[in-house]
Input
Amino acid sequence: MFKLRRSGNPPGGLESLLYLFSWGGDQSTSPWLRFSLITCLLPAIAASPRLYMTTLRHLLISLLLSGLFCFGTPLLLLGSLLILLLGLQTVPGMAAIATVGLTQLLEFLKIFGNGNLWEGLWVIGLSWGLVGVLFDLYIFCQYQMGEGTSHQ
Output
């Protein structure tokens, strides 16, 4: 049974929030994710509801932006590399090297996309986006637990 007890928390709404993130709630979310979100957001909830809503809004905006930037970065890098290699194919001395590089890059994308180039780009972009969101969530949790101060 998953229980999270913190001393000094006000009774009432907090207990019902903890129940939602307990094993008795929805089973589609992993227990570790539920535990990490609760431990990150509990200090903000206990401080004040208005601060909680501001913190939650900033968290969601930050997660959205980091996910979008981290999703777009590999697409931009791989797309620019493809365009560069296609452009180098027109240069007489670089055509052979560019053709080999382009073939290797396309095979690399096919590996991640089960034979489909576009699916490979999506898989790489989504993976980078997920990692970016997880890093952002980790930094948010560290900031909440340390209350914005560095641990020395």
Q: What stands out?
A: The first helix runs from residue 13 to 20. Residues 1-26 have pLDDT under 50 and may be disordered. The radius of gyration is 23 Å. Helices lie at 13-20, 31-47, 49-88, 95-112, 117-146.
